[in-house]
Design brief:
By secondary structure, the chain is an all-alpha fold. It is built from 4 helices and no strands. It has helices spanning 3-75, 84-103, 108-124, 130-154. It is rod-shaped and about 155 Å long.
């Protein structure tokens, strides 16, 4: 073996050793970099989970608040415009009250039954003025009671207050 061959072998061995050193350093750096990437990914996943949990909690709070508001709105009087059927039922309740009241004084043979029918229709249609419909019903019945008392006292359907 010549000196040149020995030098080449030595260079080659040193080169391989350098390469091996570089490879070991590269593998170590890759491991460190891989660990850093894994930690970064884990942190990102953890942050994403935390954000998702926070969003879910926020959504749950908003839904429970909305449910509480809708529950309190259900017990509160309606502020939104009512439908045509609701307004019609309210109108029937008011009309039955007025007809029953007027029927106590005049034409109770017609106004009493009309007040009763309108009150029953208003109650069947779930009026918002339930009390007024019940008053109209009571006044309609009172109209018929007054009529019955006056007919039995006079012996005729015609009656007058003056005598």
């Amino acid at each position: 073996m010549t000196l040149t061959d020995t030098v080449r072998r030595a260079e080659h061995a040193v080169g391989l050793a350098g390469l091996a050193g570089r490879t070991a350093r590269t593998e170590s750096a890759a491991r460190t970099e891989g660990t850093a990437r894994a930690e970064s990914t884990a942190r990102a996943e953890s942050t994403a989970r935390a954000e998702s949990t926070a969003r879910a909690e926020s959504t749950a709070r908003a839904e429970s608040t909305a449910r509480a508001e809708s529950t309190s709105d259900a017990s509160a009087p309606e502020k939104a415009p009512r439908s045509a059927a609701g307004r019609e039922a309210d109108g029937l309740a008011v009309a039955s009250f007025v007809l029953g009241l007027v029927g106590l004084l005049v034409m109770n043979i017609l106004l009493g039954p009309a007040a009763i029918v309108m009150a029953l229709l208003a109650l069947a249609r779930s009026t918002g003025r339930r009390g007024r419909a019940l008053l109209g019903l009571a006044l309609g019945v009172a109209d018929l009671v007054v009529l019955a008392v006056l007919v039995s006292a006079n012996g005729a359907v015609v009656w007058n207050v003056g005598g």
